[in-house]
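Milestone M4 deliverable, item 7.
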Amino acid sequence: MTLIPLKGINSPLSRNIHFRVSPLFEMAASLHTLAQTSPPEPFAEWAEEIIANFHSERLVKEWEYFKPVFRYGIPEIFDPVQNPDLHSSPDLYSYIVHLETRSFQHSLVPLLQNWSLHHEKPAITEDIHTDPDYVKGRFSLFLSSYWQLFFEAIWEQLAPAFDQEAKKLQAACHDSSALAAFLQDVCPSFTYLDDQLQIALPVSEPEQKPEHILLYPSHFYRSTPFLCQKGSSVHVQYTLG
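Output delivered:
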Protein backbone atom coordinates (compact mmCIF):
# COMPACT_ATOMS: atom_id res chain seq x y z
CA MET A 1 0.00 0.00 0.00
CA THR A 2 1.04 3.57 -0.58
CA LEU A 3 -0.51 6.85 0.54
CA ILE A 4 -1.46 10.08 -1.22
CA PRO A 5 -2.41 13.09 0.95
CA LEU A 6 -5.66 14.95 0.29
CA LYS A 7 -4.62 18.04 2.23
CA GLY A 8 -4.78 21.44 0.63
CA ILE A 9 -7.89 20.79 -1.42
CA ASN A 10 -8.58 23.77 -3.67
CA SER A 11 -11.78 24.17 -5.68
CA PRO A 12 -12.60 23.45 -8.36
CA LEU A 13 -9.87 20.78 -8.62
CA SER A 14 -7.44 19.35 -6.10
CA ARG A 15 -3.76 19.67 -6.82
CA ASN A 16 -3.61 15.95 -6.08
CA ILE A 17 -6.30 14.73 -8.49
CA HIS A 18 -6.34 15.17 -12.26
CA PHE A 19 -8.86 14.09 -14.88
CA ARG A 20 -7.95 13.17 -18.45
CA VAL A 21 -10.17 12.33 -21.40
CA SER A 22 -8.74 11.49 -24.81
CA PRO A 23 -10.90 10.88 -27.89
CA LEU A 24 -7.84 9.21 -29.41
CA PHE A 25 -7.62 6.71 -26.55
CA GLU A 26 -11.37 6.10 -26.64
CA MET A 27 -11.19 5.39 -30.37
CA ALA A 28 -8.39 2.88 -29.75
CA ALA A 29 -10.41 1.33 -26.92
CA SER A 30 -13.34 0.90 -29.31
CA LEU A 31 -11.05 -0.96 -31.72
CA HIS A 32 -9.82 -3.13 -28.84
CA THR A 33 -13.45 -3.99 -28.09
CA LEU A 34 -14.14 -4.64 -31.76
CA ALA A 35 -11.13 -6.98 -32.00
CA GLN A 36 -12.48 -9.39 -29.39
CA THR A 37 -13.79 -12.76 -30.51
CA SER A 38 -16.90 -12.11 -28.42
CA PRO A 39 -17.25 -8.40 -27.59
CA PRO A 40 -18.75 -7.65 -24.15
CA GLU A 41 -22.54 -7.81 -24.17
CA PRO A 42 -23.16 -4.05 -24.26
CA PHE A 43 -21.21 -3.91 -27.54
CA ALA A 44 -22.18 -7.11 -29.33
CA GLU A 45 -24.75 -5.49 -31.60
CA TRP A 46 -22.58 -2.42 -32.13
CA ALA A 47 -19.58 -4.58 -33.14
CA GLU A 48 -21.69 -6.55 -35.61
CA GLU A 49 -22.88 -3.29 -37.18
CA ILE A 50 -19.38 -1.82 -37.44
CA ILE A 51 -17.99 -4.95 -39.09
CA ALA A 52 -20.86 -4.86 -41.60
CA ASN A 53 -20.00 -1.21 -42.28
CA PHE A 54 -16.34 -2.13 -42.75
CA HIS A 55 -17.45 -4.45 -45.52
CA SER A 56 -19.68 -1.87 -47.17
CA GLU A 57 -16.96 0.81 -46.96
CA ARG A 58 -14.28 -1.64 -48.16
CA LEU A 59 -12.29 -1.26 -44.96
CA VAL A 60 -12.51 -4.87 -43.84
CA LYS A 61 -9.16 -5.82 -45.44
CA GLU A 62 -7.43 -3.04 -43.49
CA TRP A 63 -9.24 -4.03 -40.32
CA GLU A 64 -8.14 -7.65 -40.65
CA TYR A 65 -4.57 -6.44 -41.16
CA PHE A 66 -4.59 -4.32 -37.98
CA LYS A 67 -6.89 -6.40 -35.78
CA PRO A 68 -3.93 -8.34 -34.22
CA VAL A 69 -2.65 -5.02 -32.85
CA PHE A 70 -5.83 -4.49 -30.82
CA ARG A 71 -6.89 -7.99 -29.73
CA TYR A 72 -4.74 -8.18 -26.58
CA GLY A 73 -4.37 -4.54 -25.62
CA ILE A 74 -4.11 -0.91 -26.68
CA PRO A 75 -0.81 0.49 -28.04
CA GLU A 76 1.01 2.89 -25.72
CA ILE A 77 0.93 5.60 -28.38
CA PHE A 78 -2.73 6.10 -27.42
CA ASP A 79 -1.92 6.89 -23.78
CA PRO A 80 -4.69 9.31 -22.73
CA VAL A 81 -2.42 11.20 -20.35
CA GLN A 82 0.04 12.04 -23.10
CA ASN A 83 -2.53 12.85 -25.76
CA PRO A 84 -5.66 14.45 -24.26
CA ASP A 85 -6.07 17.20 -26.85
CA LEU A 86 -6.55 15.34 -30.13
CA HIS A 87 -10.18 15.98 -31.06
CA SER A 88 -10.47 15.76 -34.84
CA SER A 89 -9.47 13.69 -37.85
CA PRO A 90 -6.72 16.17 -38.87
CA ASP A 91 -5.35 16.11 -35.29
CA LEU A 92 -5.32 12.32 -35.32
CA TYR A 93 -3.75 12.01 -38.76
CA SER A 94 -1.08 14.59 -37.94
CA TYR A 95 -0.23 12.86 -34.66
CA ILE A 96 0.32 9.45 -36.26
CA VAL A 97 2.15 10.83 -39.31
CA HIS A 98 4.58 12.82 -37.17
CA LEU A 99 5.04 10.12 -34.57
CA GLU A 100 8.64 8.93 -34.33
CA THR A 101 8.80 5.64 -36.23
CA ARG A 102 10.70 3.80 -33.52
CA SER A 103 8.10 4.78 -30.90
CA PHE A 104 5.35 3.58 -33.20
CA GLN A 105 7.16 0.28 -33.82
CA HIS A 106 7.88 -0.34 -30.13
CA SER A 107 4.24 0.34 -29.27
CA LEU A 108 2.91 -2.34 -31.64
CA VAL A 109 5.50 -5.11 -31.29
CA PRO A 110 4.53 -6.40 -27.78
CA LEU A 111 0.87 -6.64 -28.78
CA LEU A 112 1.73 -8.56 -31.93
CA GLN A 113 3.88 -10.92 -29.85
CA ASN A 114 0.85 -11.57 -27.62
CA TRP A 115 -1.23 -12.35 -30.70
CA SER A 116 1.38 -14.81 -31.94
CA LEU A 117 1.19 -16.77 -28.68
CA HIS A 118 -2.36 -17.78 -29.63
CA HIS A 119 -2.54 -17.52 -33.43
CA GLU A 120 -0.42 -17.73 -36.55
CA LYS A 121 1.83 -14.75 -37.13
CA PRO A 122 -0.04 -12.14 -39.19
CA ALA A 123 1.51 -10.27 -42.13
CA ILE A 124 1.87 -7.11 -40.05
CA THR A 125 4.38 -8.86 -37.76
CA GLU A 126 7.03 -9.05 -40.46
CA ASP A 127 6.09 -5.68 -41.95
CA ILE A 128 6.55 -3.85 -38.64
CA HIS A 129 10.15 -5.08 -38.52
CA THR A 130 11.09 -4.73 -42.19
CA ASP A 131 9.22 -1.56 -43.12
CA PRO A 132 7.70 0.22 -40.08
CA ASP A 133 7.19 3.45 -42.05
CA TYR A 134 4.94 1.56 -44.46
CA VAL A 135 2.91 0.18 -41.55
CA LYS A 136 2.71 3.60 -39.91
CA GLY A 137 1.42 5.21 -43.10
CA ARG A 138 -1.15 2.48 -43.61
CA PHE A 139 -2.14 2.69 -39.94
CA SER A 140 -2.71 6.44 -40.07
CA LEU A 141 -4.93 6.11 -43.15
CA PHE A 142 -7.00 3.35 -41.55
CA LEU A 143 -7.50 5.29 -38.30
CA SER A 144 -8.36 8.46 -40.18
CA SER A 145 -10.98 6.60 -42.21
CA TYR A 146 -12.40 4.94 -39.10
CA TRP A 147 -12.64 8.28 -37.34
CA GLN A 148 -14.31 10.08 -40.23
CA LEU A 149 -16.74 7.31 -41.18
CA PHE A 150 -17.69 6.00 -37.75
CA PHE A 151 -16.03 7.19 -34.59
CA GLU A 152 -16.51 10.93 -34.86
CA ALA A 153 -20.28 10.44 -34.55
CA ILE A 154 -19.77 7.97 -31.69
CA TRP A 155 -17.56 10.46 -29.85
CA GLU A 156 -20.16 13.23 -30.19
CA GLN A 157 -22.62 10.95 -28.43
CA LEU A 158 -20.16 9.97 -25.69
CA ALA A 159 -18.64 13.37 -24.92
CA PRO A 160 -21.49 14.65 -22.66
CA ALA A 161 -21.06 11.66 -20.32
CA PHE A 162 -17.35 12.47 -19.91
CA ASP A 163 -18.20 16.13 -19.28
CA GLN A 164 -20.66 15.06 -16.59
CA GLU A 165 -18.03 12.87 -14.93
CA ALA A 166 -15.60 15.81 -14.87
CA LYS A 167 -18.25 17.99 -13.22
CA LYS A 168 -18.86 15.32 -10.57
CA LEU A 169 -15.14 15.32 -9.77
CA GLN A 170 -15.02 19.11 -9.63
CA ALA A 171 -17.91 19.15 -7.17
CA ALA A 172 -16.30 16.43 -5.04
CA CYS A 173 -13.04 18.35 -4.82
CA HIS A 174 -14.67 20.97 -2.57
CA ASP A 175 -14.51 18.52 0.34
CA SER A 176 -12.00 15.79 1.18
CA SER A 177 -14.69 13.34 2.33
CA ALA A 178 -16.70 13.86 -0.87
CA LEU A 179 -13.54 13.42 -2.93
CA ALA A 180 -12.71 10.22 -1.06
CA ALA A 181 -16.23 8.91 -1.76
CA PHE A 182 -15.84 9.73 -5.45
CA LEU A 183 -12.50 7.92 -5.63
CA GLN A 184 -13.86 4.89 -3.80
CA ASP A 185 -16.76 4.76 -6.25
CA VAL A 186 -14.26 4.83 -9.11
CA CYS A 187 -12.03 2.21 -7.51
CA PRO A 188 -13.44 0.35 -4.47
CA SER A 189 -9.94 -0.81 -3.47
CA PHE A 190 -9.05 2.78 -2.48
CA THR A 191 -9.14 3.30 1.29
CA TYR A 192 -9.77 6.70 2.84
CA LEU A 193 -7.91 7.37 6.09
CA ASP A 194 -10.17 10.03 7.55
CA ASP A 195 -7.97 10.89 10.52
CA GLN A 196 -4.95 11.41 8.24
CA LEU A 197 -6.71 12.93 5.21
CA GLN A 198 -4.96 10.41 2.98
CA ILE A 199 -5.98 7.88 0.35
CA ALA A 200 -4.36 4.45 0.63
CA LEU A 201 -3.73 2.85 -2.76
CA PRO A 202 -3.32 -0.89 -3.40
CA VAL A 203 0.04 -0.55 -5.19
CA SER A 204 3.44 -1.77 -4.07
CA GLU A 205 5.64 0.60 -2.11
CA PRO A 206 7.27 2.59 -4.93
CA GLU A 207 10.78 3.96 -5.28
CA GLN A 208 9.25 7.38 -5.89
CA LYS A 209 6.49 8.53 -3.57
CA PRO A 210 3.31 9.24 -5.58
CA GLU A 211 1.92 12.75 -5.37
CA HIS A 212 -0.98 12.71 -7.83
CA ILE A 213 -3.83 10.52 -8.98
CA LEU A 214 -4.61 10.67 -12.69
CA LEU A 215 -8.11 9.45 -13.54
CA TYR A 216 -9.08 8.49 -17.06
CA PRO A 217 -12.48 6.93 -17.59
CA SER A 218 -13.52 5.01 -20.69
CA HIS A 219 -16.83 3.97 -22.19
CA PHE A 220 -15.33 1.08 -24.16
CA TYR A 221 -12.91 -0.14 -21.46
CA ARG A 222 -14.84 -2.86 -19.62
CA SER A 223 -12.88 -4.34 -16.74
CA THR A 224 -12.00 -3.79 -13.12
CA PRO A 225 -10.14 -0.50 -12.58
CA PHE A 226 -6.53 -0.68 -13.70
CA LEU A 227 -3.91 1.03 -11.54
CA CYS A 228 -0.27 1.64 -12.27
CA GLN A 229 2.34 4.14 -11.16
CA LYS A 230 4.31 6.25 -13.61
CA GLY A 231 6.79 8.57 -11.96
CA SER A 232 5.06 10.56 -9.23
CA SER A 233 1.55 9.79 -10.50
CA VAL A 234 -0.80 6.87 -9.99
CA HIS A 235 -2.86 6.25 -13.13
CA VAL A 236 -6.37 4.88 -12.74
CA GLN A 237 -8.23 3.63 -15.79
CA TYR A 238 -11.85 2.73 -15.16
CA THR A 239 -15.17 2.13 -16.88
CA LEU A 240 -17.48 5.10 -17.07
CA GLY A 241 -20.86 4.23 -15.64
